[in-house]
Write a structure and sequence with these properties.
By secondary structure, the protein is an alpha+beta fold. Helices cover 30% and strands 29% of the residues. The longest helix has 14 residues.
Length: 262
């Protein structure tokens, strides 16, 4: 049997989902809600706490509780990789119009804010194993964050690794000020004469770290989805490893597998 605070939370949840309580709207004062639902203030606060963990409301201390504005949904389709490869050899004028994030979110370039941090790092055992290189080999680590201008939290945190000795052949690839790069990583590799043959993606889920919860704007109970993307060139060489950490409450992963006809 549902507890009283769960029943109250469910009623408020329905008011939010039907639009009776609109995004950004302030809820009545907690004392007024307690009176309305004929319950104690501690029970009412349990109900509100449940809605906060679900990401439906936010509390601004000293002001009140507000219906949380829905965050932009990200739909990541595996067809994006062929789309990126098709663009890799296009002119810059053609590539500059839109990128993978715009494809995933439906946003426009002007809707988005980009951040890129580049660091030269030494390959850990994990990354060395992925690239087939000795531990300690130099890699270019690139950390990307992109968020909608109306939101504080990024869509995801992407850590991309490239073999430094390969990408350093084009100095432009070492400068984060060139991001967002028209055509993305596949075009960057194309400038080095590298063609991506296949991309392997491995997906897992886990609880977020404290830092991830804060940066991605997660509420209690929401997991992160972690995608490791490995790009392999036409010579069978791993040319990029990327770990993308995505919030489980705003990400959909869509996989379409075309089957050969009999």
């Amino acid at each position: 049997m549902a507890k009283q605070y769960e029943r109250i939370a469910d009623q408020l949840r329905q008011h939010i989902r039907t639009g009776e309580l609109a995004p950004g709207q302030r809820l009545p004062a907690e004392t007024a809600l307690a009176k309305e639902y004929k319950t104690s203030l501690p029970t009412l606060r349990e109900a509100l706490g449940l809605l906060r963990t679900e990401g439906l409301i936010d509390k601004q201390h000293g002001i009140g509780n507000f219906v949380r504005k829905p965050r932009k949904l990200v739909r990541r389709d595996n067809s994006r990789h062929q789309w990126e490869k098709d663009r890799a050899r296009q002119s810059e004028a053609e590539r500059i119009g839109t990128g993978a994030t715009e494809q995933d979110t439906g946003a426009t370039f002007s809707d988005l804010q980009f951040s890129a941090v580049y660091t030269v790092v030494s390959a850990t055992e994990d990354l060395a194993s992925q690239f087939g290189v000795p531990v300690g080999t130099r890699l270019l680590e690139r950390v990307f964050r992109t968020n909608h201008r109306d939101e504080d939290s990024p869509f995801n945190i992407a850590r991309s690794y490239l073999p430094y000795d390969i990408v350093s052949a084009n100095p432009a690839l070492l400068d984060p000020d060139n991001e967002p790069w028209p055509g993305g990583t596949q075009n960057q590799l194309h400038t080095l004469g590298i063609e991506v043959d296949r991309i392997v993606e491995r997906i897992s889920a886990r609880p977020p770290t404290v830092e991830e919860s804060e940066e991605l704007g997660l509420r209690g109970g929401v997991s992160v989805v972690v995608l490791r993307k490995t790009s392999v060139d036409t010579d069978g060489r791993v040319v990029e490893v990327s770990d993308v950490t995505m919030p489980g409450d705003r990400t959909e992963l869509i996989f379409t597998t075309n089957l050969e006809r009999w």
